[in-house]
Design brief:
The longest helix is centred in the middle third of the chain and has 15 residues. The chain has 91 residues and is mainly α. The chain is 57% helix and 0% strand.
Amino acid sequence: MPQTNINIRIDENLKREFDALCRDLGLTTTAAFTVFAKAAVRCQGIPFNVTRGVPNAETAAAIEEAQAMKKDPSSGKTYTDVDAMMKDLLS
């Protein structure tokens, strides 16, 4: 079967880490991409979930609080003293 080349741009550090992973798995980088391409064709899609990270409850609450404070700056707690703020944050 005839061969062809694919050229992609990738972050240099990511490439270095991926190459090392492939070596540890006994694969060449080309073989790893071929495995990926065959799996994608077989399942007619990306062969793994591609999702955005969902924040945990604490992070979601902090995001909501920040958005509320943005809309109404007087709704949040304010400080005039850094030491008092740090004491409150660390408690």
